[in-house]
Protein: RING-type E3 ubiquitin transferase
Organism: Ceratopteris richardii
Amino acid sequence: MPAGGGIGGDAVDEGGGGGVRGIWAGIVRRREVLLSGAARRISGTGIVGVLTVANPPNACAPLEAADAKESNYPFFVLIERGECNFVSKVQYAQDAGYAAAIVYDNEDSHELVKMSGNGFSIDIPAVFVSKEAGFVLSQFVNDKDARLYMLPALETSAWSVLAVSSISLLTLSAILSTFLFVRRQRLRRANLRLLQEPTGLSNDEIKALPIVAFNQKDVASPESCAICLEEYAFGDKLRILPCKHRFHVPCIDNWLNRRPFCPICKREAFSTSIEVSSDNAPLLSSISWQLGSTLPLLVSPGAASGRAAESSSAGESSL
């Protein structure tokens, strides 16, 4: 049989012999045989031994003891099912000094087998395997290089399943709660930042700010927009803020939609009055800047003198 192969069988002992369900035997590397489960509990990591066949094969009578001089390992006995109950076979194996008993089925059946008998006096492990598994095991009888390992069966109880399920559920709940809590805190901080940020100007307030066309003759050196960092070209439309800083119309409009202050000096971008300098006033004079008005931003000296002459002539004519 190839290394690592497995053969399965089922058995139940109703007489207290420690029935086993889901027994399997497998041939592993180095011609070692692995058996899981036993009639009696196996402590520690299990037991190891060599296999010999029962004499008589069905172990319904006292068995011949194995020669301990042939091996330094304890002996396991391979017994055929039939003619007497399971407990009697194992009892004879124990009386003959065997360390464990392996009973194999004498029929090609995979149905659940029920064994009866009183096994309170049995102290050695015992397992029941299928006929096919017994045939495979018989190939290793009296083989000095073959070793059998009998391991304790893995037992699961309702309490262990419930405990594992509860721990898994609590762990999942804790992870989910932590995720939701962190997400809620992040959303809360984001909302606080949005509330703390100033709101921009409305479209009507932005449109109320004056627009002029750029003329290179008005400035001594080239100017650039502080937002897009591009130099002004002749004829570019610039929007002027109350602080006298000017920017490209699309650039400053987009800025003012989100922030109500100048991107350079941080002064409020919307005001009902503008302070302008005048050569005729001692220092500064304030003129009212009504929304929607079309007052000129700059007045040339020639225009001012012309208006003064017109007003004086009008006064003389009235006299």
Remarks:
- The chain has two domains: 5-154, 203-302.
